[in-house]
């Protein structure tokens, strides 16, 4: 029940926040109906399995294995959402982040975020603080660091190298422009280094 609540409450909040106002009631009714049908189906499966002699422990172990497998699939298919969840838990547990001016960030459409670079955790904190996809423009030398590169790829960072020549810089700027046009947030740390 506890972990079900950890799953259900954020999903319900996201549905309420992101649903168009004219469809919100219908979307909430539909998701509640799907939840009820899932619970009813699970109860029928439980009754059917116990009636043929399968004990409750085996049923729960099978259900747990199915949930872990599905959770693993989700983490592989949508790694950004898993990463954002982990970052949110860490940042709101250890750092107590307070976001000021969130209303200035559009809920849809592309926007350019220009941030001060005060620590190596800035990109992770910004990712945890906002609930939209963000593509970070970052130095290629930082992008190529072995422990940063997998995270940068998951977050679809845009590497740029001032020493790589004009073609590479133009290509990076084109990638950022395409992301903006497709509705993503693009974040750049204007100083280029930690202040």
Radius of gyration: 22 Å
Q: What is the 3D form? A: elongated
Secondary-structure content class: alpha/beta
Q: How big a fraction of the residues is strand? A: 5-15%
What is the straight-line distance between the termini? Answer: 46 Å
Number of helices: 8
Mean pLDDT over the residues: 85
Order of strands, widest sheet: 1-4-2-3
- How many strands? 4
Runs with pLDDT <50, length 5+? none
Helical proportion? 55-70%
User: How would you sum up the major sheet?
Assistant: 4 strands, parallel
The secondary-structure element order is: HHHHEHEHHEHE
Commentary on this structure:
- This protein has about 200 residues and is of the alpha/beta class.
- It has helices at about 1-20, 25-50, 55-75, 80-95, 120-130, 140-145, 150-155, 165-180; strands spanning about 110-115, 135-140, 160, 185-190.
- The protein has a four-stranded parallel sheet with strand order 1-4-2-3.
- Helix 4 packs across helix 5.
- The longest helix is centred in the first third of the chain and has 28 residues, at about 25-50.
- The N and C termini lie far apart (about 45 Å).
- The relative contact order is 0.10.
């Amino acid at each position: 029940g506890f972990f079900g609540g950890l799953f259900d409450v954020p999903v319900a909040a996201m549905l309420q926040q992101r649903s168009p106002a004219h469809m919100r009631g219908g979307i909430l009714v539909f998701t509640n109906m799907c939840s009820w049908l899932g619970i009813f189906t699970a109860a029928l499966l439980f009754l059917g399995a116990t009636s043929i002699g399968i004990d409750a422990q085996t049923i729960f172990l099978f259900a747990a294995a199915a949930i872990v497998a599905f959770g693993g699939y989700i983490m592989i298919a949508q790694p950004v959402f898993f990463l954002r969840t982990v970052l949110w838990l860490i940042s709101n547990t250890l750092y107590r982040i307070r976001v000021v001016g969130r209303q200035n960030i559009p809920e849809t459409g592309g926007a350019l975020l220009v941030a001060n670079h005060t620590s190596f955790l800035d990109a992770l904190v910004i990712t945890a603080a906002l609930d939209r996809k963000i593509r970070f423009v970052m130095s290629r030398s930082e992008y190529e660091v072995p422990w940063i590169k997998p995270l940068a790829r998951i977050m679809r960072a845009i590497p740029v190298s001032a020493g790589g020549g004009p073609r590479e810089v133009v290509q990076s700027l084109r990638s950022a422009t395409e992301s903006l046009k497709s509705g993503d947030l693009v974040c750049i740390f204007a100083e280029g280094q930690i202040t």
